[in-house]
Amino acid sequence: MARAGLTAERVTIAGAELADDVGLDQVTMSQVARRLGVKDASLYTHVRGLEDLRGRIALLAADEKTIRIAEATAGLAGRDALVAFADAWREYAREHPGRYAATQTSIRIDPELAAKAPGPRRAVELTYGMLRGYGLAEPDLTDAVRLLRSTFHGFVALEAAGGFAHERSPQQSWVRALDALHTLLEHWPPPQEPMFGEGDSS
User: Fold this and answer.
1) 2: pLDDT confidence band, cut at 50, 70 and 90?
2) Is the pLDDT of residue 4 over 50?
3) Sign of the torsion formed by the C-alpha atoms of 137, 143, 149 and 154
C-alpha cells in the first residue's frame, strides 16, 4: 500500500527538488522514493514511471516560471517589461536549474496533463503580449519569440556552465544584451524580398 498522504503532486515536487540538487538527467525513481521515505513501488501508484515524472516536473516548472514572469511584468510595457521578463526568466533558471532544464528539454508529456496545465499556454500569451507592445505582428512575432528564447536560454546555459570567464561580469553583459534586444525590437527590420527562385516550386 502507498504511504498515507503520498500524491502525484508530492512525488512531482520531490522529483523537482531532486532535479535541482543533482540535475534532471540524474533523477531516478529510486532516488525520489528515498527522498520521500517510501519503497520504489509506492511511487507507481501516482506516476507511471520516470518519463511521466519528468513530464510532470516540466509542467510544474512551466507553471512556476510563468507565474514569476507574470508577477514581474504586471503593468509594464516596452523596455521595462522586457527587462522584467528576462530577469524573472534568468532568476528562475539560476534558482531551479533542474526544473528549468525540464522546460527546455524535449520530454514526452501526457496530453491529458498538458491540456490541464496553464503554464505553457500562459507563457505564450505573456511573451506574445509583451512583443505586441513593440508593434510586431506575424510572422515577425514568432521570429521575435524565437530570438528572445534563444538569447535568454543561451545566456543562462552558458552562465550556468561557467562559460563566461572574461573579467567583465556576466551581469554587465546581460544588461547590454537586453539594451540591444530592446533597440532591435523597436526597429525590427522589414521582411526582405525573396531572392529570385526562392520558394519557386516550378
Assistant:
1) very low
2) yes
3) negative
Cα distance between residue 58 and residue 114, in whole Å = 10
pTM: 0.89
Whether the upstream peptide bond of residue 118 has omega within 30° of 0, thus cis, is no
In terms of C-beta density within 10 A (0-12 exposed, 13-18 middle, 19 or more buried), how is residue 99 classed?
Answer: buried
If phi > 0 it is left, if psi is from -120 to 50 it is alpha, else beta; for residue 119 that is alpha
Please give the share of the chain, as a percent, with pLDDT higher than 90: 82
Residue 131 has which C-alpha cell?
512583443
Q: In sequence order, which residues have a C-beta less than 8 Å from that of residue 160 and are 6 or more positions away?
A: 93, 94, 97
**How far apart, in whole angstroms, are the C-alpha atoms of residue 42 and residue 1?**
7
**Residue 39 in grid coordinates:** 519503497
CA distances from 156 to 26, 66, 97, 162 (A): 20, 17, 10, 10
Integer angstrom CA distances of residue 7 from 40, 42, 183: 14, 10, 48
- What pLDDT is stored for residue 116 in this prediction? 84
